[in-house]
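From the pipeline queue, job 12 of 40. The input is one protein chain; the requested action is below.

Action: predict structure.
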Amino acid sequence: MSKKYSFNTWLPLVMAGALAVSVPAAVIAKQGADTSHGKTVYEETCIACHGENGAGAVPGAPNFTDKNGRLTKPDEVLIEHAVEGFQTPGSPMGMPELGGNPDLTDQDIADVIAYIRQTFGK
C-alpha cells in the first residue's frame, strides 16, 4: 500500500538527482511503476489539462508528444513539477501542486511518469 505523498519523501531523491544520481530509474524501479495504474491516474487527474493524446488540452499545458518538449527533462524535474506545481514562463495557467489532486501517492506519481513516458514519449 502506498503512503500519502510527502515532499520530504521525494526531497532526498530530488537532491540525489541534482548530484547526478539517476532518480528516474531508482524511483520507478523502487516503486515498481505500473503503467496500467499510471494510465488510470492520468485519466482521473491529468487528462483534463494534458489531454487524451498528451498534446495539451488547455493553453499552457505542455505537449508530451513534442520530441523536444517536456519529456526531454529528467524524471526528477517532472517529479518536482508534479509535486510542487509549475507554470511555464509565458503560460497563462500553471499546474497546481499534485495536479490539483491532494490524494496522489508516491506510487501514483511514479506510475504516471512511467505511463506518460511510455505512451507519449515515443
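Job complete. DSSP finds five helices and no strands in the chain.
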